[in-house]
Amino acid sequence: MSTVPSAYKDLLEKKAFASLATVNADGTPQVTPVWFDWDGSHIRVNTAKGRIKDKNMRSRPTVALAIMDPENPYRYLQIKGRVASVTETGADAHIDALAKKYLGKDRYPYRKADEVRVTFTIALDRVQVTG
Fold it and tell me: 64-102: per-residue pLDDT in tens?
């Protein structure tokens, strides 16, 4: 299944964190909790250029995400996918929108002066649900 069932789409809209798994250069997994949003068909995540997840997703675009319901962690989505696009264009506005969703703040408060933000759009290859 590569679409999210209707009964689980709420997990894509609420303030749930995703655990994003990427693959390191040596083949080992790397997992990071991330903020995300959903454009109706893709998951979007944002990071700073040069971070491990940035390097991993650029070099090895296969990823997995687990998104747990914050009210019931036994109810979750598991998504296997691939990076469909990477862009710096609009990435500052994207992290600000995520800060609004997750922190209730209009601007991302942890921005560093020298960092370059990047948005990764992830296409869903397989979706599994539990709970």
Answer: 999 999 999 999 999 999 999 999 999 999 999 999 999
Domains belonging to the chain, first-starting first, are 6-130 (2.30.110.10)
Identify whether the C-beta of residue 65 lies closer than 8 Å to the C-beta of residue 36: yes
- Of 72, 82, 66, the closest CA to residue 129 belongs to 66
pTM across the whole model: 0.95
Contact, 9 vs 43, CB < 8 A? Answer: no
Mark residue 26 as left, alpha or beta (left: phi above 0; alpha: psi -120 to 50; beta: remaining). Answer: alpha
